[in-house]
């Protein structure tokens, strides 16, 4: 009788072990699809830790939190390497596509403009969008033009018929520090110079020409 009871208990125990092994195989097969690159993986929450070269990306689906190991963080996230785990951290601004840190954006999503690490619907006052990019840059508003300089030609102010005169305007210090592209800061124009310098002796127009001698008229007397 005892032998029969012993055999029955052994049979029940073996059936339980067989059922557990079958469940483990099914669970491990399902986890392998979602646990690529994981060091530790959970059936309910996905990856918990990743290999040292990968980043752990965690997102929420309702009340559920799910983890995944990735080589590069997706748009809207930036990678932070740590001693134990590398994580993908979400950019604070929802209009940011790529960020350097949580609060400093490097590229904005469509229909937004980037200015000093922030995304805007329109460029702030005093800035303008650069051609071909969605980045705002400070506009350069130079000061007033100076008076025209003296008319010169090869550092001379007289003695030539034509010369050149120039004028300039200054750039604000803020625009110079930002390296902002500015409009023309120097203008030149052609000007007429004094042909003769003061104190210079002018040569008479007929100087150098030989005076023509009047032909002598000979008078003949009759004999």
From TrEMBL:
One Pfam family from the record: Furin-like_2
InterPro entries assigned to the protein according to its UniProt record, in alphabetical order: Furin_repeat, Growth_fac_rcpt_cys_sf, R-spondin, Rspo_Fu-CRD_dom, TSP1_rpt, TSP1_rpt_sf
R-spondin Fu-CRD domain sequence ranges: 35-136
UniProt feature, compositional bias: Basic residues: 207-217
Source organism, top-level taxon: Eukaryota
Keywords of the record: Developmental protein, Disulfide bond, Glycoprotein, Heparin-binding, Secreted, Sensory transduction, Signal, Wnt signaling pathway
Protein name, as recorded: R-spondin-2
């Amino acid at each position: 009788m005892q032998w029969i009871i012993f055999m029955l208990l052994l049979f029940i125990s073996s059936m339980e072990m067989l059922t557990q092994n079958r469940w483990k195989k099914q669970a491990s097969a399902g986890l392998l699809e979602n646990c690529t690159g994981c060091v530790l993986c959970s059936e309910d929450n996905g990856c918990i830790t990743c290999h040292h070269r990968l980043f752990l990306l965690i997102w929420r689906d309702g009340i559920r939190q799910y983890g995944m190991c990735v080589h590069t963080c997706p748009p809207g996230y930036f990678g932070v390497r740590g001693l134990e785990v590398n994580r993908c951290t979400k950019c604070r601004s929802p209009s940011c596509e790529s960020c350097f840190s949580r609060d400093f954006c490097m590229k904005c999503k469509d229909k937004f403009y980037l200015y000093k690490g922030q995304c805007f619907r329109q460029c702030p006052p005093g800035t303008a969008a650069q051609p071909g990019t969605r980045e705002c840059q400070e506009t350069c508003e130079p000061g007033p033009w100076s008076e025209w300089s003296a008319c010169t030609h090869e550092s001379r102010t007289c003695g030539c018929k034509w010369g050149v005169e120039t004028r300039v305007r200054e750039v604000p210090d803020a625009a110079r520090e930002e390296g902002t592209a500015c409009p023309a800061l120097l203008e030149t124009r052609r000007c007429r110079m004094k042909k003769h310098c003061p104190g210079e002796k002018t040569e008479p127009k007929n100087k150098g020409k030989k005076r023509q001698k009047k032909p002598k008229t000979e008078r003949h007397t009759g004999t």
